[in-house]
Design a protein that fits this description.
homotetramer, alpha+beta, Chorismate synthase, AroC fold, 5-stranded antiparallel β-sheet, 22% strand
């Protein structure tokens, strides 16, 4: 287990799908920062289950309590302990899977690694684990926003084969994103996405997709070559999210088909700094932010738990038919949007603090 | 700077393109492992410049010397210090860029971050930095190979718009890969790739592409959820390689277009263990290896340094015409193959050691 | 702030003297370990305030709740989140110190470091912070005990100028230690220590002293030279305890007055292993345990908060008279015994896990 | 093995007593710092063997070469690789100990830990390992000196039973310390110490002692509670030095005998800051520096390798007579002075950088 992320802005999370609670400790958050539970709750509400007809119907208020590190709405510089108690536990939903590892889920690998696994739900492999990340990421965002004016906005850019046109990365906002159930800022596309998700839901199947994220107002200079380059830490952070299968910064895989003469981001004066004419680099060059918007994509596989029966082996090797009965999302992407934002914020807050040592 | 990677199998690298030397310290390598300089040299020779007409003509023997940690060809358990002295330094090749940050290179961001940068070559942002990684990765591979029989093979699967058919991941070998200058194991495709690279070289332009890597015989159980999942550490490792722009495990971005019923890797008995019928997971589920081959892709952008003149701004904001004059590869992929293998080995060796604590 | 300790057995603590709660997250604890709240409560009860007439009268039940990581009394291998809610908060006791930094306390340095400090009590600098350590240490001890039979026993060996004779380090037990209020296993000395503490309490003054700790059944081979030698990590762990001022392993400062011929621990066969005739090394040689009992001393200064008025400067530099009014221990040593044990357990559990990678 | 120290100012060392070389990589050193090999050589010369009749006669020039990270005598912000080649290797001196673990040395524990050990000399357990520390510490000192005016001076305050009077901690200098062979700034005491060392040398025995160190001009605010308190990291750093057995900050073990009313460091205005009337705290309160001089003691045991024959067991358990024949110091303290300074500098540089994030 490695449940701690970051070197200076250090986040530790804990909690399983059906434990008493989940939570996070944020150690290293700068002091004298205005912070209250409502700041954190806002993002938790965007991640919580049951928020729309597209998501799992598990009911969780996901109400955060700050246990330490904040006094009179100001951070003390000491570790910020946060807990969210689990409420809607229905272990019986999951009893039938105990001898059958669910395909493409964590049951088999957790059992092989630890010789034990949570009896109910996905345990630590459940997306419920990400609650703590979102709480911690909200703290990171507040630091980034107040200290540097950083804005982080993620959205669903593809669901299955439906792809949205690129929005204006300078203008896209969380409010705009949240106007659609599916968190895609392009209205027409979002309607198609919703239809597609409802269709697979009806068919007891699932869909994957792509989340795109932009981080604006990131100053030049963040990122620690050679192993903790900004894109490397973002890649680790994103691939640590349940169901994530890919990451690309800037032009990514598409850029591999271009020639250097077309791909190079040529410099040009922008106000009082150098900027680039294009942004195929995605705001990061040689591992260090260059002042342009940081833009990246994250690929999410289709939800592994589906209602459609599948032939698969149980732990003893017998082929059995398995149909998922627990509550689950037919498409995780709408709820994964605040998780991507949270992980981006945790990466940037850590790199920001390290770079501050050079002032 | 963050030049240390890994928690138990810990690699620290140092060195710039035109410093006296580059190297690595491997701390935490298990003791009593048979190791000699020739084991390491083999991979260095696959990375070194000047090995074919497709690569930069900088002449470097890249001869490694082991300074410590090994006695009578056995590792002592103590840190293995390795150095490679730089030989073919031609700082004059680079003098003309001093006031002009090369587009999509590290000149601008290093200057913004550190307030100084190496006067010649790319400094630490040069691919020369990866020499130390390859040396360290070779040590990691020897451990993985001797202790677990792990085999790591990477190859060039795309150059620009030319894509190779998938080889048999169980059979593809380094020998087969090295039969073509471009390190693509499919003969016909490799011929086209070589032609494409020679064409852009003639046109003073450059190409990118994709490297695919398979790690065979990886036991189930490696990977440390939730932040150091196997795919997360691989993603960090790969995105830390110069010019890397994307990473995908298993089905990756393509898998986002599939339905769960098709994407799920159903279990089946394979000999004395459970395996999966398909491997869209790429050998990792919920952050932990499952015993199937680990398979992933890494996207590389086209080389930033090109001979074609480009209009770009100097540090003062004046638009100037810049044409790269240093020695460089028109396509970095053939030489990046051993780097991808080295980083994969470093990740797996570290996760393997951590999992050993559970025996 | 650095509230995380350990590399594989990783403990993160949080909480201030007057926050809603204190707690700890233990990440990396081996799975399938039998663990329940009562195991942890036992050590918390030895640390809690109000347990005798010698200690602060603050009333705290210090009841631990395990939030995650344990199911059916077995550890899952996932992070173990533990909280202890604060109950007896009397911020008014501390209001009078707000403008006057208490001498030899953390008020001044926290203010200088963070530009803010907890308005009431010592905040994170209060010994209340150690609650989380004791909870985490109890988990570490259970692992060490079950996996290796390790026994850790600490006791008060000196209070002020009163020094106890050395007990038999092979026989001294927690039960024996707890027979005296002051946790000194020598009856006669303990009576004198109690008298001395009651005397300074009456005189509104305070005393320091020394705690000695033995760790039995530690196998040879634990400790990670050169920077994480066993004695180095123990030293860090002990000096991180509030009021600790010194650490010595084995012969320590006294041994500096001996000659090598007398100080060397000569080897002798002991059963099926080599042991040493003497143990001036304190069970650790060249940073690695040698199979003999690990024995060390920790020096604690007299409690900084005293009822006796003292002339000191306020933050503005004015000389004022200050007398402590909060509840505090006239001598912290009896309650520090389980803290020393907890920190020793955290160090040994981490070194044990690292060494397990070599099996 | 754990050969890396520090989180932001990160030092990795390598090398054994009889390997080809020893060295260090300093990663995270601030850029644009003036640095040349002569800066580092100065401290290496104070540590090197053969510098006086009191030390081992092994001949090593200990000439440092900077391989990377510095250009035109300015640090680039990239890792500074430094090597010192070993010259005077006489493995034959050590052949006779191969089957007999030297008492109180690392032979036995390294063998138990790694299942192998360096055939000649102490390998990584030799004090030769500290060469890399001194080189890295010299870099740290240059940063501390230039950025903050920090001055670090250590001296021998006791040899065996001979104790020096306290010097003026504000005035004691390296030049003054180096006036005596034994590095004790009190002339009369130093004469006695030299006599005592020559006496044990003649008698083929050895002595231990105490080194005291002061760090001046350390600003208030350095240190990271709760686990990386300034005194905790100093304790770890000092106990990681070969032969170190104890550490005390400020009043240390002596202070345990005082009452709080006498021990408390009362505040008083000093220029434009608050200072303390006394400094029993040793410049650190609640884990954070307070602006007063940081003062601490380190206990060193008598050298384990002595010429006097000793009865001890070989690895097979047979009692044999062993007399050390290698070259060694009868008292390590004079040469340990720059090592203590180096480790202090490494700790402070790391804490300084972390605190800089709060500016």
């Amino acid at each position: 287990m490695s449940s701690t992320f970051g070197s200076l802005f250090k986040v530790t999370t804990f909690g399983e799908s059906h434990s008493k609670g989940v939570g996070a400790v944020v150690d290293g958050c700068p002091s004298n920062l205005s912070l209250c539970e409502a700041d954190i709750q806002k993002q938790l509400d965007r991640r919580k289950p049951g928020q729309s007809r597209l998501t799992t119907q598990r009911k969780e208020a996901d109400q955060v309590t700050i246990l330490s590190g904040v006094e009179n709405n100001l951070t003390l510089g000491t570790p910020i302990g946060m807990i969210i108690l689990n409420q809607d536990q229905r272990p019986e939903d999951y009893n039938h899977v105990s001898e059958i590892p669910r395909p493409s889920h964590g049951d088999y690998t957790y059992q092989m690694k630890y010789g034990i696994r949570a009896a109910s739900g996905g345990g630590r492999a459940s997306a419920r684990e990400t609650t703590g990340r979102v709480a911690a990421g909200a703290v990171a965002e507040i630091y980034l926003s107040r200290a540097f004016g950083v804005e982080i906005v993620a959205w669903v850019s593809a669901v299955g084969t439906i792809t949205a046109p690129d929005p204006d990365v300078q203008a896209v906002s969380r409010e705009g994103v949240d106007e659609s159930l599916v968190r895609c800022p392009d209205f027409e596309t979002s309607v198609k996405m919703v239809e597609a998700i409802e269709e697979v839901k009806f068919e007891k199947d699932s869909l994957g997709g792509i989340i795109t994220c932009v981080c604006r107002n990131v100053p030049a200079g963040w990122g620690e070559p050679v192993f903790d380059k900004a894109e490397a830490k973002l890649a680790q952070a994103m691939l640590s999210i349940p169901a994530a299968k890919g990451f690309e910064i800037g032009s990514g895989f598409t850029g591999t088909r271009m020639r250097g003469s077309a791909h190079n981001d040529r410099f040009v004066q922008k106000g009082d700094r150098l900027g680039t004419l294009t942004n195929f680099s995605g705001g990061i060059q040689a591992g260090i932010t260059n002042g342009e918007p940081v833009v990246f994509n994250v690929a999410f596989k289709p939800t592994a738990t589906i209602g459609t029966p599948q032939d698969t082996a149980d732990f003893a090797g017998n082929i059995v038919s398995l149909a998922g009965k627990g509550r689950h999302d037919p498409c995780v992407l709408p709820r994964a949007v605040p998780i991507v934002e949270a992980m981006a914020a945790m990466v940037l807050a850590d790199l920001a603090l390290i770079q501050e040592t050079r002032k």
